[in-house]
Write a structure and sequence with these properties.
The protein has about 180 residues and is α+β, with helices and mostly antiparallel strands. It folds into three domains: about 1-60, Nucleic acid-binding proteins (OB fold (Dihydrolipoamide Acetyltransferase, E2P)), CATH 2.40.50; about 65-130, Orthogonal Bundle (DNA polymerase, domain 1), CATH 1.10.150; about 135-185, no CATH class. The chain is built from eight helices and five strands, in the order βββββαααααααα. The chain has helices at about 65-75, 80-90, 90-100, 105-110, 115-130, 145-150, 155-165, 170-185; strands at about 5-15, 15-20, 25-30, 40-50, 55-60. The protein has a five-stranded mixed beta barrel with strand order 1-2-3-5-4. A hairpin with a 2-residue loop joins β2 (about 15-20) and β3. α1 (about 65-75) crosses α2 (about 80-90), α3 crosses α5 and α6 crosses α8. The longest helix has 15 residues, at about 115-130.
Length: about 180
Amino acid sequence: MIGYLEGEIKYSGNGKVILFANGIGFTVFIPSSLSFLERDRAQLFIHTHLREDNLSLFGFATPEDLDLFELLISVSGVGPKIGLAIFASANAGNIVKAIESSNLTFFNAISGVGKKTAQKIILDLKSKVSKGDINMKNLEGASELVDSLIALGFQKQEISSVLSGIDSSLSLSAQIREALNLLRK
């Protein structure tokens, strides 16, 4: 895998650059917040995305941006193009703040991100980007249950406090009944 490239920009435009490094021109997709001119020297931290029919490189200015991008695309339903769209809408600090504050509106405003995807991003990444008081690890693997309880109007803090007491081997409807009983106490 390619993790870092340094070289001269041969082409820049439309959210990508061609970076000439060690005699090879690499096409690297970059967030629109990064801009380069031809002949600029660039240093990019790279995410190599491999699918069965495609190899794509995604470049970022800092390792922290790369780490956040990789966290974003680890969420089911969020691919590299949506990850770049998120970076196009804000810098890494604002993305982290949106996750920490459970700001669905921030993510819903991004093309390709619907309400369910926005909820998944927040639920899956909150514990990974913040030191919040919600242990979101309890929410992993129980997303159907969590989504159902959120749809019923419960807050994530309430849900998190009862998840450990619910038998995950039960059917979803039985898990919901058990959660409702615990939440009523």
